[in-house]
Design goal:
CATH topology of the largest domain: Rossmann fold
CATH class of the largest domain: Alpha Beta
Number of domains: 2
Strand order of the largest sheet: 3-2-1-4-5-6-7-8
Order of helices and strands: EHEHEEHEHEEHEHHHHH
CATH architecture of the largest domain: 3-Layer(aba) Sandwich
Distance between the termini: 54 Å
Helix content: 40-55%
Structural class: alpha/beta
CATH superfamily of the largest domain: NAD(P)-binding Rossmann-like Domain
Strand content: 5-15%
């Protein structure tokens, strides 16, 4: 295949490396010319992706922040290969899919939204790797849900990445779920380490602290944009968590050991239920 990638950050460069290792031709676009040069020197980029090249690409992966991704697709709508695929890799889906589906319909190309559920605490090209997506889930937002030929084509085109599972979702449902499963975890972790006590944690912390703070180390520019674009869903989750925390606080203020124990039991049981480990009585 001829694969075009817009955005050579952590995700875009990992895509480039994965496709190049499988022998595909990889052209890339990035606002920073030095990133393209670095990709060429490192051997996982064949050349620069220009507007005139888009018509020859079997697959174009837009790995930019959501607003920039939507703008890139809108600016290049008339140039995409009508027989190829255009996909994004953004953490929010509504803002990109709403606009990209309209552009795709206007110009006759196929767009499918995608969110690879993979990454690490670092950002940037230098931390990318060809195995980034091996075994990872990917959420797909197709234009229609009854076209199995399209889904099979997407799986075929993404095969070099090694994704473990594919999940279909509407854009609004994706953003609702991702507010809980990803964005809240990053937000809470980031807020948690702001405790004045945190500076003295050495020698007093082990697995629990590491688990709780792992995703506090994030890319502020990217995550602030994702949070703001999905703020309706994220605020709901913040309100829910705040309400639950207040129950624990109130039980302790009232010295209500029974209430506190019940709250902890409810949380434990819910975790067992969610993980499928709770035995039927």
């Amino acid at each position: 295949m001829k694969v075009g990638i817009a955005g050579l950050g952590l995700i875009g460069a990992s895509f480039a490396k994965a496709y190049k290792e499988e022998g595909h031709e990889v052209l890339v676009y990035d606002i920073d010319p030095s990133a393209v040069i670095m990709g060429k020197l490192s051997g996982f980029v064949d050349g620069e992706l220009g507007k005139e090249d888009l018509k020859d690409m079997d697959l174009v992966l837009v790995c930019l922040y959501p607003e920039a991704a939507a703008e890139y697709i809108e600016a290049n709508g008339s140039s995409f290969n009508k027989n190829g695929l255009v996909m994004d890799a953004c953490g929010n889906k509504r803002i990109v899919c709403d606009r990209a589906f309209k552009v795709a319909e206007k110009y006759g190309f196929t767009f499918v939204g995608a969110h690879p559920m993979a990454g690490n605490k670092y950002s940037g090209l230098k931390h990318s790797r060809a195995t980034m997506f091996n075994g990872a889930p990917v959420v797909l937002v197709p234009p229609v849900f009854d076209d199995m030929n399209l889904i099979d084509k997407v799986k075929e085109y993404l095969a070099p990445c090694g994704f473990g599972t594919y999940c279909l979702s509407h854009a609004d449902k994706h953003d609702e779920m991702i507010a809980f499963t990803s964005q809240m975890a990053h937000l809470v972790s980031n807020a948690y380490v702001k405790s004045p006590t945190a500076k003295d944690h050495h020698g007093f912390s082990a697995g629990s602290y590491k688990d709780m703070t792992r995703v506090a180390w994030l890319n502020p520019s990217m995550w602030s944009e994702l949070f703001m674009e999905n703020k309706d869903n994220l605020i709901k989750e913040i309100d829910c968590l705040t309400n639950e925390l207040n129950k624990y606080r109130e039980a302790m203020e009232k010295n209500d050991l029974e209430a506190l124990t019940k709250l902890l039991e409810e949380g434990r049981d819910r975790k067992e239920e969610l993980d499928g480990s709770k035995k039927n009585s």
